[in-house]
Amino acid sequence: MSTQQKRVDVGAVIDSANYFWMPFGITIMMIIIMLTDGFDLFMMGHVSNHLVTDWAISKSQLGPINSAGLLGMAVGSVVLGWLGDRIGRKRSYITCLMFLTLGSVMCYRTAMAGSHDLDHLVIWRFVTGLGMGGVTPLAATLISEWTSYRVRSVIVALVVSSVPLGGSLAGIAIKLVDWQYMFLIGGLVPLALFVLFGYLLPESPKYMAQHPALHARLARTLNRLVGEKRYDGTEQFVVQEEGKRSSHWIATLWNVDYRRATFFIWVAFSFNSFVLYIFTNYLKVLFPADRVAADVAGMGLTLFSVGAFFGSIGGALMIRWYGSRYVGTGLAFVGALATVLIGVLLMGTASPVAFTVLALCFVLGAAINGMQAFMYAVSAHSYPTDIRGSAVGMAQTISRIGAVASPSVASFYFAMQPMPGVNLFFWFVAVCALVTTISFFLIPSHIQATPAHKAA
């Protein structure tokens, strides 16, 4: 007599489980990795002035270095995201850490060589970018697949907001060590994490559910999650998700069920990334040296990074009450408004009040960095498991169109003779932030408010 195989919806098991302790431990590991990623990402914004001074180069020559890192991120996000769907999120994540280590350590060797070799620095920032590009979409994918829907949006935002917080650590480190050692720190820490988390970090349960050879491993993992021996690996593990699948993951992104979401996610992501990387790499040098003191400009970049935590987490908590459409749209509009106000402050010849500059930098960071976290959360929410890593990675890759354009636009502005007032540049960036606002609002697949908070 045959027995019917027990059917287990993995998503339902995840949603019914407590957040503590296993998902909490995964969150901590993700945060530590993302802090490291943020350190490497924001590093160039902190070392740029030192590089210009010590190597006697112009600000416009920073463009190829910053572009190389962003191009590497564009390639890494889609390739490593796709790889995560094929060989597992964990293996692809470990590969990211290897690229971060190799690229940053070689940047350090280049910086210490004394030859002022910009070409090699460009090459190794590209390699570093490969790792940086894969880390965030894989983190958004992995953490969204390990956490219950009750806390998912908050935890994804918390993890992604760790990137600019890692940037604030870079702001602290540059005051303690010579700028060349920033690259060494950015390489050795991922190496340590590669050794430690290569063992501790679990694979995505939804990925394992789609591969029968991993079902025994999935059963053990789910048993740890629920705190009891409930599964033995003989079950039929399934992932129930809506949406039509096409013959290829790229075709699925553009079929009738997903194409509108894909279009507006890509537009919003691209314009927000343009604004984000303009400020990440150039905020310090955009402030006129004769009107904004160097220490104030440096603190402004640090507060821009710190503000991300408050924008991301505060906004994610509000999603539970109001959903992502209205919260994210409002946050994006605040970013556009803060950018306009900084431009107003820099009109004329009078020096702006330092407190006002720093306050606006904090608000700007909360809005722009917070929106970046929202983009990953909404992107991960919008696509099914079997293409989620590829879809989020592709969204990040497309966003690099804006990111890669940022150093080119900044270099073009700095090279203009005569150079227009910096207030006009800030107002141009504000228009781009407004495009983010509108396109984010038009995304159809937003995260809805949780039922308990709707009722409230």
Description:
This protein is 77% helix and 1% strand. It has one domain: Growth Hormone, Chain: A, CATH 1.20.1250. The model has no long low-confidence stretch (mean pLDDT 88). Strands 1-2 form a two-stranded parallel sheet. The longest helix is centred in the N-terminal third of the chain and has 33 residues, at 22-54. It is mainly α and 456 residues long. The chain is built from 17 helices and 2 strands.
Compute the gyration radius: what is it?
Answer: 22 Å
Strand arrangement in the largest pleated sheet: 1-2
Number of helices: 17
Give the strand content. Answer: under 5%
Q: Based on the structure given, which CATH architecture is correct?
A: Up-down Bundle
List the helices and strands and how they pair.
Blueprint: E1 7-9, H1 10-16, H2 22-54, H3 62-87, H4 89-112, H5 118-146, H6 152-173, H7 179-200, H8 205-209, H9 215-226, E2 236-238, H10 249-253, H11 259-286, H12 294-322, H13 324-345, H14 354-382, H15 385-415, H16 422-441, H17 451-455
Summary of the model, kept short:
The protein is mainly α and 456 residues long. It has helices at 10-16, 22-54, 62-87, 89-112, 118-146, 152-173, 179-200, 205-209, 215-226, 249-253, 259-286, 294-322, 324-345, 354-382, 385-415, 422-441, 451-455, and strands spanning 7-9, 236-238. Helices cover 77% and strands 1% of the residues.
